[in-house]
Amino acid sequence: MRRFGTSARTRRGCLAALLGGAVMLASAGCSPAQRPLVAVHVDERGVAHALLRSCDDDGRVRGPALHGTVPRPTPTSEDVSSPEGAAPEGAAPEESAVAEPWIGWEALGTHEAADFPLFEPPSSWAAEARGPRSPQPGRSYELSFADPDDSYAYTGTVTFDAGQLAKVRPGDVLTLRGTMTKEEFEDLAREAC
After folding, report:
1. Pairwise CA distance, residues 193 & 190, whole Å
2. Quick check: pTM over 0.90?
3. Other C-beta atoms within 10 Å of 30: how many?
4. pLDDT above 90: residue 73
5. Alpha helices in the chain (DSSP H)
6. Which of 98, 140, 143, 153 is most buried (CB neighbours < 10 A)?
7. Mean pLDDT of 169-190
8. Cα 172 to chain centroid, rounded
9. Is the CB of residue 139 less than 8 Å from the CB of residue 68?
10. Given strand 178-181, what is the order of strands in its sheet?
11. Mean pLDDT of the chain
């Protein structure tokens, strides 16, 4: 007589599928929401500026940073099989596809959100600075910060290059959602919180 039910193998397979799905959902749910809380613009003297807005009641941001990198093309299968596309001796293969070391600045810890010249963060932030203090052609920049409460609920970010920044008209700012007036950005940032 055959018993109805599930075998141990079937139960293990179902359990593995269930756990795999749970892990996928958990990892997808861990990414913080990107909010339009960061903008850049160029003033009438040609100086690039950063505007950081926070959803924190105390107006704080965590780990603000400006990183400028040179994107490298993604290697093709042909590149990987040729000596020129191979990783440098002693380097892991994935290291060869990573962008050059960054230029810009980064400040560890929690700081008050602020408006400031893009390449001169407030001195109270004790930021580590690297490289030139102006937008460089051929670099992709990311200005970002994280939720100050370590909850990873949101981040503020904007990405741009020197050409995009140069095209921002006086009175406008470049944000995660494109170019807009400074007033529109302020409204959008308030709504994002």
Report:
1. 6
2. no
3. 8
4. no
5. 8-28, 77-81, 162-166, 182-192
6. 143
7. 96
8. 22
9. yes
10. 115-117, 48-52, 38-42, 172-175, 178-181
11. 80
